[in-house]
Specification:
single chain, 133 residues, alpha+beta, four-stranded mixed beta sheet, 4 strands, 55% helix
C-alpha cells in the first residue's frame, strides 16, 4: 500500500505534537529515512504543506487572507481577528493582508474553503438586484 502525503503529515503530527525540539528533530530525520526507503522523497514539499494544514486544524489555527482596497490599520485588523475568533470558535487566526486596488472599499475574507465578501461592490450589486425584484 502506498502512503500519501496527508497520511505522512498526520503521522508526523501525531508523533510530534507533545515532543521536545530535540525529539522532533530525531523524528524528522527518521521520517526522511522512511521517505527515502519508500521512494517518496519527492513528496517532501507536499507533505510539509499537508502538515501545516493538519497542524493548524488540530491546534485551532485558521489562516485567513484579507483583501482590501488599501492597507488596513492595526485596529481594523484586530477587529477582524476578534470577529473571526468568535465566528469560527478557534484559538488563533493568522491574517495575511493583500491589497486589491479593484475593490471600491470593504474587505473580502478568505479562509479554508470559505469566502466572506464584505466589499462595497458586492453590496451595491446585491442592492441593485433587490431593487430589480
Amino acid at each position: 500500500m502506498k502512503i500519501n502525503s496527508k497520511q505522512y503529515a498526520l503521522a508526523l503530527y501525531e508523533i510530534a505534537k507533545d515532543k521536545k525540539k530535540n525529539e522532533i528533530e530525531l523524528m524528522i530525520k527518521n521520517l526522511v529515512n522512511v521517505l527515502i526507503a519508500n521512494n517518496d522523497i519527492s513528496k517532501v514539499d507536499e507533505i510539509m504543506n499537508e502538515f501545516d494544514k493538519v497542524w493548524n486544524y488540530k491546534e485551532g489555527v485558521v489562516d485567513t487572507t484579507v483583501l482590501s482596497a488599501k492597507k488596513l490599520d492595526e485596529k481594523t485588523l484586530e477587529l477582524l481577528n476578534k470577529y473571526l475568533l468568535g465566528k469560527l470558535e478557534i484559538k488563533k487566526v493568522d491574517i495575511i493582508t493583500d491589497i486589491d486596488e479593484k475593490l471600491l472599499g470593504g474587505v473580502i475574507l478568505k479562509y479554508g474553503d470559505k469566502i466572506l465578501d464584505g466589499s462595497i461592490k458586492t453590496k451595491l450589486n446585491n442592492f441593485k438586484s433587490r431593487l430589480k425584484n
